[in-house]
Amino acid sequence: MLRKVSPRSETEPYVKDRGETVEMKEKKIKRSDFLKLAAAATVTGAFLKPGKTSAKEEIEAQAVEADLSKLPREIVHKNDLLRMQEDLIRGLKKPRKQRKWSMVLDLRRCIGCSACTIGCKAENILPPGVVYRPVVDEEIGTYPKVTRRFIPRPCMQCDNPPCTPVCPVKATYKREDGIVVIDYDRCIGCRYCITACPYNARTADFGEEYTEGTPKVEEYESRPSFEYKKKWPRKHGVSPIGNARKCHFCIHRIEEGLLPACVTTCIGGATYFGDNNDTDSLVSELIPRPNITTLKSELGTKPKVYYIWG
């Protein structure tokens, strides 16, 4: 005979995975409040409306305001996105020169779906031939005992970048927070930096369009991008067409309190981002581990993108 179970009252304790209980009487939150807080960590960016002059205005108009301090620590630390969001907001309160933005990629969790690649292209409105976040599909082992490994490869944001000293007009440089950027207004398109990068992390924008050669070039290809917190119209003869381009950790997002697009779109939870100078951040816990490595460390470039191999 089935027994009727009465619904749990709001004052009863929540049950944790290991059978422990956490009293929520002093820190009760409504379901709607929790969803708003979660949305702040998972939002991948709003569509930019015509007439806006900057990404900042759009974010201020549409972004969900959240105070993660309202959430119990147990919830924040169990959800990597929420924790990274909190780490990001905490880092933004420090002067730029005291931050060290870093990324950790867990290859054990990457399934090669390329959601990060597509999320990045959509966020930065990238044309054909310009990819900031490719995923390398590598076969390892000896036949018949072979397997595949997927390696996301954004810009390494090197502490000793070989791409910056070769620029004849100083258009590419490392910021105080460690992010290597390109000044599109200064770049002359010589592509020396593309050749100098040992990670193939830079590409050239030749002004191509996906619908080129069809009866009509679609309007979505003419949308402006908002990289580096500035509006860049998609017009021939106007930057960034003709420039070198690269990943910049979504500066226009992180400086408004949003995680990079590749982090929030990773369905395997393989991408971590935060301030490595913050000893309480998630990335600062992961980077010292013995199974962490960087690509081509023998070159002395000192990348700030780290990999968990196994």
Structural domains: how many: 1
Report helical residue fraction. 10-25%
Rounded to the nearest angstrom, the radius of gyration is 22 Å
CATH architecture: 2-Layer Sandwich
Low-confidence stretches: 1-28, 43-58, 60-65
Mean pLDDT: 84
Share of residues in strands: 15-25%
Which sequence of strands runs across the widest sheet? 10-3-12-11
Notes on the protein architecture:
With 310 residues, this protein is α+β, with helices and mostly antiparallel strands. It has one domain (50-278): 2-Layer Sandwich (Alpha-Beta Plaits), CATH 3.30.70.20. 22% of the residues lie in helices and 16% in strands. It has helices spanning 31-42, 55-62, 73-78, 80-92, 115-124, 192-196, 251-254, 261-265, 282-286; strands at 14-15, 21-22, 101-106, 135-142, 145-152, 172-174, 180-182, 202-204, 244-246, 271-275, 292-293, 305-308. Strand 1 (14-15) and strand 2 form a beta hairpin. The longest helix is centred in the N-terminal third of the chain and has 13 residues, at 80-92. It is globular.
Quick take:
The chain has 310 residues and is an alpha+beta fold. The chain has nine helices and twelve strands.
List keywords for this structure.
single chain, 310 residues, alpha+beta, two-stranded antiparallel ribbon, 22% helix, disordered N terminus
